[in-house]
Amino acid sequence: MLEISKLSVRFGGLVALDGFDLQVGDGELIGLIGPNGAGKSTVFNVISGLYSPASGSVALNGRTLLALKPFEINGRGVARTFQNIRLFRGLTVLENVQVAKHRTHEYGLLGAMTRTRRFEADEQRMATEASQLLDMFGLYDRRMEDAVSLPYGEQRRLEIVRALATKPQLLMLDEPAAGMNPAEITDLMRLIVEIRERFKLSIVLIEHHMQLVMGICQRIAVLDFGVKLAEGNADTVKRDPRVLAAYLGEAL
Ligand code: ADP
Ligand code: MG
Question: Which terminal Cβ of the chain has fewer Cβ within 10 Å, N or C?
Fold first, then answer.
């Protein structure tokens, strides 16, 4: 479904990605790990249209994503969360989800202006879907609260809900467990597996929390200094000498 080939990204003299390849199939759950500064978020930033690569290709279902704008890429079915949470200030939890959902509206501008029956039905459907997603992520009771007043772990879950509200076929999560406590992480693992099954999603997960990555990903790619060091299942990656060297001193 997603095919990244020979992707290179430079920032001035810095090579953030150097000939990176990755393939993601329908319904796959793929981990992307590596030390800080390895180039992981850069991969997401290229796929989602925020960075332009120096060379290489990114295609979804055989069509290139390069040169499309971020909202067009979202329209093709790609959604993401950010390493640094980016919720809308001054909006409630529910409004944050509704803003995202309106990008998937099916009525035209005229319908919106004249508030046709179709428009009303769409509004109702979107409200129901937003509520269901919030409920699934344990945020329904918080729906009227200011989004940025939520505890950190809940803000991270809300970011995922907001991405899901755009009905992606590919979901990219950038360090979703960062700042979460152990109970929240266990919950998050279950949720990631559940949304993948329920919504038939492909998921790429960047994460430093090794138990989470190793526990749920079918395949894991390891980046270091913009180069893919290894790729395989948890056992293969854990035993790879290059991976161990890159993570020297850290528990895998
Ligand atoms: P990771 O997510 O693996 O920690 P990043 O992809 O964020 O790493 O960054 C990879 C490298 O590219 C780092 O050295 C980082 O400083 C650099 N980098 C990322 N984005 C930019 C940018 N917009 N401008 C300049 N350098 C960047
Ligand atoms: Mg990062």
Answer: C
